[in-house]
Amino acid sequence: MFQAIVIENDEQGYRSTLTRLDDAQLPPASVSLDVLFSGLNYKDALAIENKAPVIRQFPMVPGIDFVGRVTSSRHPRWRPGDLAILTGYGVGESRWGGLAGKASADGDWLVALPETLTPADAMAIGTAGLTAMLCLMTLEKQGVTPQQGEVLVTGASGGVGSFAVWLLAKAGYRVIASTGRPNDSEYLLNTLGASSIIPRETLNQPAKPLAKEQWVAAIDTVGSHTLSNVLAGTARYGVVAACGMAQGLDLPASVAPFILRAVTLAGVDSVMCPMHSRQQAWERLASLCDSEHLRKMTTMIPLASAISHADDLLRGQVRGRLVVDCH
Ligand code: NDP
User: Fold this and answer.
1) What is each CA distance from 184 to 23, 179, 246, 279, 299, in whole angstroms?
2) Is 39 helix (H, G, I), strand (E, B) or coil?
3) CA 200 / ligand 1 centre spacing (Å)
4) How far apart are CA 154 and CA 163, in angstroms?
5) Closest C-alpha residue for ligand 1 atom 24
6) How far away, in angstroms, is 204 Cα from ligand 1 center?
7) Which of 47, 158, 175, 259 lies 20 to 30 Å (CA to CA) from residue 316?
8) Which CATH superfamily hosts domain 2-117+291-325?
9) Whether the predicted interface score ipTM is above 0.90
10) Average pLDDT of the residues of the chain
11) Residue-level pLDDT at 165
């Protein structure tokens, strides 16, 4: 038996409960694991609180990312005792996820925990850190270097945004952080390493086709008018990596930045990202992240309080990552 958060939706209504499951109830898969830590992400909170149609089938164990120890394997790459990370692939949405003591998974989806990271470090990074790294790698693939000029990050206080600021700064970039939380300015500048702050309001209103060239590249977690303004302010031959939609799914922009300044807009998706990019991203994360800093960005909670913390997360009362101890 093991503990799990289970979401059900039947004649008794939509409900999330902490319950005990039998090992035999785990969906069949090539690898079984003891979950060590799981992340509590915004998407998990939406699922737990029924605030968006995240869950595709019921009953569902939520949890879109976790790190665990392999207990049995029919997969050639994995042996009992191996430590592995799983993010994305619809886990916690259409397949049982990580907010549980045990999980089963397709071995093709697992990434080996890099040697220099602890299991808790891996979930302090989680989907947010992985997405931020994929954005940084996207900029680099397009030829962006620290010498070219400043890089903008929108939604800088958020999960992905704060990792993006920190990773860019660690990689030697000068970072402009756009935030709607002036109280977080000191954290963004002194702890995460941003060089300057701009208020969110300067970017979230309807955009002109082109604006003054202000940054050579950007990581946008916000979408909508913000992304339009980001594109309009990007320098000639600049690159924008877009991964989020905190302001909205729309993009009310013009083609002017593309046809007059040759700006590149590159999408980033961590859910179905190819395995070689995931492995590369985790290796880069392992080389840049240190446990001490990750601990400062993390609040550790027990599985038993994950449901109550989902509400705090949706009300914007959480800064940094919530890591759930599932041992
Ligand atoms: P968070 O909620 O932690 O952060 C989003 C940030 O965006 C907020 O902290 C805030 O930052 C800013 N923001 C919120 N609302 C608005 C608004 N109305 N207008 C302008 N800015 C706003 O979310 P995450 O960092 O976890 O995720 C960010 C986005 O990325 C989400 O849309 C998420 O769905 C997406 N995502 C995509 C992934 C992918 O694979 N493509 C993976 C993970 C997440 P501030 O207060 O600093 O302005």
Assistant:
1) 44, 8, 18, 32, 17
2) strand
3) 12
4) 11
5) 159
6) 13
7) 175
8) Medium-chain alcohol dehydrogenases, catalytic domain (3.90.180.10)
9) yes
10) 96
11) 97
Gyration radius from the chain CA atoms: 20
Rounded mean pLDDT, 101-119: 97
What residue ranges do the domains of the chain occupy?
2-117+291-325, 127-267
Q: Ligand 1: which of 46, 196, 243, 271 to mutate, judged by most atoms within 8 Å of the beta carbon?
A: 243
Integer CA distances (angstroms), 283 to 56, 105, 117, 144, in order:
32, 22, 10, 20
Q: Of all protein residues, whose CA lies closest to atom 7 belonging to ligand 1?
A: 155
Is 127-267 in CATH node 2.40.50.840? Answer: no
Instruction: Name every residue whose Cβ is closer than 8 Å to that of residue 25 and which is 6 or more positions away in sequence.
Output: none
- d(C-alpha 50, C-alpha 44), whole Å: 10
Report CA(229)–ligand 1 centroid distance (Å). 16
Percent helix, percent strand, percent coil in the chain, to nearest 5: 35, 30, 35
* Percent of the chain whose pLDDT exceeds 70: 100
Q: What is the pLDDT of residue 209?
A: 98
Residue type for position 17: T
SS (H, E, C) 85-129: EEECCCECCCECCCCECEEEECHHHCEECCCCCCHHHHHHHHHHH
d(CA 95, CA 65): 12
Least confident of 103-112, 169-178, 316-325: 316-325
